[in-house]
């Protein structure tokens, strides 16, 4: 079944309380962060804490990621090595700017998998695109390795690299968002939208999440448990959408039995792509436990 990645909750890896409590909020995915949420002084101790947490806790219903430090920093390679040894199977690589960045991680993972005696390709990669250069190279990044399960957008760093500020309306992000969605779709992987830093601005957050779904993102990174419910309700098909999708599928099945490829349902044309979209709604609904 398709894994839902509606929410990816960032959890700073130096915070034992949050590390322990994160699954209680039922995000689809948790990203333990060793990069920007962790000061230079704490990089090693946070990694040690996360290694212990990965060995100790069962995060049964959440898909677990770690945002490691970029491989060109003094911490990145050790992050990957130690965490994979402790059981990590999904690496979120920040500052993915070129296909080389992904390929370097791929080579390192292959080495580690060999050392650990696990199958090559076990560990997956989510490439975080958060610079102008990364956005330009999104298409190459998305297909740089067979380990790719998705690419994500990081708007805080992205606005820094284009010399802009992040606005509530987000016009400055539109082109990058579209490019990331297109690159992911062409590669057949998920696109994950960026965080919204203003935890108090529920209205702005909801509008941004709505827009992310419309653009084609599979989900959104979040920084606070309060943001999870909103994203889940937006990225889960509504009852009406599911009902309509099931009717579309059943109508086309009846039509096919009569030798017809196109029909009308409630005055609207139903043909191949519309049926495919209805099937996607049903898949998402099943993933969310609605069917
Ligand atoms: C641009 C980027 O790089 S974004 C990615 C890096 N940033 C991060 O990882 C930040 C993640 N988020 C956080 O650290 C926090 O939400 C903050 C610092 C923004 C706010 O934290 P707080 O002021 O403690 O929030 P608040 O008081 O509302 O928290 C309420 C409860 O939710 C918990 N909580 C808050 N955020 C999280 C989280 N991300 N994961 C798990 N639990 C959380 C708190 O521990 C607290 O629990 P408690 O009641 O048991 O003490
Ligand atoms: O990946 C994200 O959503 C958060 C991030 O690092 C950024 O916005 O720079
Ligand atoms: Mg960033």
TrEMBL record:
Q: Where does Mg(2+) bind?
A: 130, 157
Listed InterPro entries:
Aldolase/citrate-lyase_domain (IPR005000), Citrate_lyase_beta/mcl1/mcl2 (IPR011206), Pyrv/PenolPyrv_kinase-like_dom (IPR015813), Pyrv_kinase-like_dom_sf (IPR040442)
Residues that hold substrate according to the record: 67, 130
Q: Which cofactor does it need?
A: Mg(2+)
Q: What is this protein called?
A: Citrate lyase subunit beta / citryl-CoA lyase
What GO biological process terms are annotated to this protein in UniProt? oxaloacetate metabolic process
**Entry's Gene Ontology molecular function annotations:** lyase activity; magnesium ion binding
Q: Where is the HpcH/HpaI aldolase/citrate lyase domain?
A: 6-225
| Key words, A-Z | Lyase, Magnesium, Metal-binding
Query: Per UniProt, what is one Pfam family of this protein?
Result: HpcH_HpaI
